[in-house]
Design a protein that fits this description.
Elements: H1 4-18, H2 22-31, H3 37-44, E1 51-53, E2 58-63, E3 66-72, E4 75-82, E5 85-92, H4 108-119, E6 123-127, H5 135-140, H6 150-159, E7 164-168, E8 171-173, H7 175-181, E9 185-189, E10 194-196, H8 200-207, H9 213-217, H10 219-222, E11 231-233, H11 236-248, H12 288-295, E12 302-303, E13 312-319, E14 322-329, H13 340-355, E15 360-366, H14 373-377, H15 380-393, E16 398-407, H16 408-412, E17 422-426, E18 431-433, H17 437-444, H18 446-450, H19 455-467, H20 472-477, H21 490-507
Parallel strand pairs: 5-6, 6-7, 7-9, 8-10, 9-11, 14-15, 15-16, 16-17, 16-18
Antiparallel strand pairs: 1-4, 2-3, 4-5, 12-13, 13-14
Helix pairs in contact: 4-6, 13-15, 17-19
Length: 519
């Protein structure tokens, strides 16, 4: 019992740290409808698994060498288990000086950012913090030049090595706002989350107008319009559930295979409804989620960024227990055509799947790039060029099922030209070309149409002639497509492909040889 006094002192200091910002700070947090950082960790982590690092760091007040008061650091870091897998957690404590950077102690932030690299385990940020503060200038007696500190240099390496998840759980500004994007998956919570580089006072000083933090940075701008944040949760608990599910599809790091779960779905399932989902009328939409339900393992699809770039649906799923990346065009929005928003979303997703060795499964109904003046103003042509490069740089196994249309350069964006393991087949409902017959005929046969006695009748005649040779079977006769399949055979073929992909994936472990992941 020689060191019992010190053990008692250690216990007392841990209790002081657990007070966070004290009753007043905690009460403010609750009035805003938010959990405290320690409550968040308790709800996210497996029970009893959190191991805190730096719990004793803080600002202490002494009298005659006796500790009389203690304010902990406004950052809680450590490791924990999530569904039995170890991760690093970094949580901002808004009850201590609003999580401001100038209230930090030591280099806990830098330590937390480097730990996932050293241990090669996923990293989760619970962001409820502001960035720098002018208070720092007064404390250090000068201003300072912003520089590329080691954190900035390490951010790229972090994204290239382990899964990173950022949860915006309050008003997040400055560097923490950037950290929302420095991740592979991000979530905000309706009613409590706001993300911006500078808040309303900064906007007022810079631009001279008043705006609320809700108008400036809630889900309306960040999830639905800009796509800065991937998913929206109704509650903090739902955000934690999304985090657990996202990580369940990914390996601990790029040197490991994605984790397989025990399959509980028939690999040879042939659902009859697949014969009727695609309408004969080419201008009629259908529910793309039905196709996913009939082909993927039941209840395994986890959608990412559902509110942004809505003409393309994408996310993770499982096929016979193996994690895969999934994409399908959404004919219910812009006819499924590729606009700039959808292209940006798809590029990040391709990079994510390539980085963590998930095979790509694409159900193609691609009418082409979005046309028109608005699309031109947004830079659709450059966006298409980026898509071409991202596809050609990827190397994960890829299978495409052409379920309806595949047109133009947007269609070419999903052909890897025999680079890496690639397979493409079609349903009998498929049709394709360099461009649509409607519209294309008017351009290619303009002189013939204009010189005809009845230009409209001539145009229709030409279109009928072209449509007569547009059968997918003629394409298969020329071996321009690997095969035309019965839609009911889609799942058995997909299971076979994904199982065949596993040995290939093992040869690709380690840092990606394809495109780097860019936020």
């Amino acid at each position: 019992m020689v060191w019992q006094p010190e053990i008692e002192e250690l216990k007392r200091r841990r209790e002081l740290a657990a007070r966070m910002g004290g009753p007043e700070g905690i009460a403010r947090q609750r009035r805003r409808g938010k959990l405290t950082v320690r409550e968040r960790i308790e709800r996210l982590a497996d029970p009893g698994s959190f191991q805190e690092i730096g719990a004793l760091a803080g600002a202490a007040t002494y009298e005659d060498d006796r500790l009389v008061d203690f304010t902990p650091s406004n950052m809680v870091i450590g490791t924990c288990q999530i569904s039995g897998r170890k991760v690093v957690l970094n949580g901002g404590d808004f009850t201590v000086r609003g999580g401001a950077a100038d209230a930090a102690v030591g280099n806990k932030h830098g330590f937390a950012n480097h730990l996932p690299l050293q241990w090669r385990i996923p990293y989760i940020r619970l962001l409820d913090a502001t960035g720098g503060s002018v208070r720092t200038f007064e404390q250090i007696g000068r201003t300072y030049i912003p520089d590329a500190n080691p954190y900035c240099a390490g951010a790229n390496q972090l994204l290239a090595t382990v899964p990173v998840v950022s949860l915006a759980l309050g008003s997040v500004a400055g560097l923490p706002a950037v950290e929302v994007c420095l991740s592979h998956f991000s979530v905000m919570v309706k009613g409590i989350s706001h993300v911006f580089p500078g808040g309303p006072p900064v906007v007022k000083a810079a631009l001279g107008y008043d705006i609320s933090k809700e108008e400036l940075g809630d889900e309306r701008t960040q999830v639905f319009q800009s796509g800065v944040v991937d998913n929206l949760a109704e509650t903090e608990d739902e955000a934690f559930q999304m985090t657990r599910r996202f990580l369940s599809y990914l390996p601990q790091n790029v040197w490991e295979m994605p984790p397989r779960t025990e399959p509980d779905d028939d690999p040879n399932r042939r659902d009859e409804e697949l014969l009727s989902i695609i309408p004969r009328q080419r201008n009629r939409p259908y529910n793309p989620y039905k196709i996913l339900r009939h082909v993927l393992d039941r209840d395994s699809f986890f959608e990412i960024a559902p509110h942004y770039g809505k003409s393309r649906i994408l996310g993770f799923a499982r096929v016979h227990g193996y994690p895969v990346g999934v994409m399908i065009n959404n004919p219910m929005y812009l006819g499924g055509s590729m606009d700039v928003a959808a292209g940006s979303k798809v590029i990040r997703f391709l990079q994510l799947c390539n980085l963590f060795h998930l095979p790509m499964v694409y159900f193609a109904d691609e009418p082409g790039f979005m046309v028109g003046l608005e699309a031109q103003k947004q830079g659709i042509v450059r966006a298409g060029a980026k898509m071409v490069c991202a596809t050609q740089q990827s190397r994960m196994p890829w299978i495409t099922f052409v379920i309806r249309q595949l047109y133009g350069v947007a269609g070419q964006c999903h052909d890897r030209a025999m680079r890496g393991m690639f397979k493409r087949v079609a349903w009998p409902s498929g049709y394709w070309g360099s461009m649509h017959i409607e519209g294309g005929a008017s351009a290619a046969y303009r002189r013939e149409i204009d010189s005809a006695p009845d230009p409209e009748a001539k145009r229709q005649e030409i279109e009928r002639r072209l449509k007569a040779i547009a059968s997918p079977f003629r394409t298969a006769e020329a071996f321009n497509i690997e095969d035309i399949i019965d839609p009911r055979d889609t799942r058995p073929m997909l299971v076979d492909f994904i199982e065949s992909a596993q040995p290939i994936l093992k040869t690709q472990l380690g840092p990606t040889c394809g495109p780097p992941f860019m936020p």
